[in-house]
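Please check these two lines:
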Amino acid sequence: MKKGGSHPVGAFRGLLPLLAGLALATTAQAQAPVEDLTSREQAIQRSQQKTGAAYRDLQQAQYEAKLAEQDFLNARDAQAAAQKQADEMKRQLDAAKKALDAARSKVAQARKRYDEALGGVDNAFQKPPAK
């Protein structure tokens, strides 16, 4: 006859070591008071749940910190670009102001020359005609 084959006795022989192990484990557990074992298991389970929740909180906080850091870096880069653009706009403003001042000065000089020339014409009309 084959060992451990389809015969019921052979199959049972393969299960004997497994059943013996289970019996020893059950016996060891039976020695501890049921309440202590249950409260210990509950305490372990609660601690594991707290640990899992704390780990999820840690992961969430790390993720949020990473997002906040990226937002900060983006804002810093945007501010630097805006500052560079603002500096360029200021240079353009200063150059335009300088050009405006120069143009106004030319207008004032041209007006002065025009007024002097106009005054010369008025003076020429006020003089008596030459005979």
